[in-house]
Amino acid sequence: xxxxxxxxxxxxxxxxxxxxxxxxxxxxxxxxxxxxxxxxxxxxxxxxxxxxxxxxxxxxxxxxxxxxxxxxxxxxxxxxx
Length: 81
Fold this sequence. Notes:
Elements: H1 10-25, H2 29-41, H3 47-59, H4 64-74
């Protein structure tokens, strides 16, 4: 069995670098969702609610702030629309 693997491409290295830069800058959607919930609604998201928001954001054409608001309503943390 050959345990060698190919060296990463420049594109892969750049994507990895960008991802870690986004982590450091807190610009990934999961960080932004937490900021929206905290700044706009005064709420801290638990992991279950954050996962629900990220799932909705990944599978719908809604903007992130809409996904946050929808999930907070669904969880009963905001009064009805």
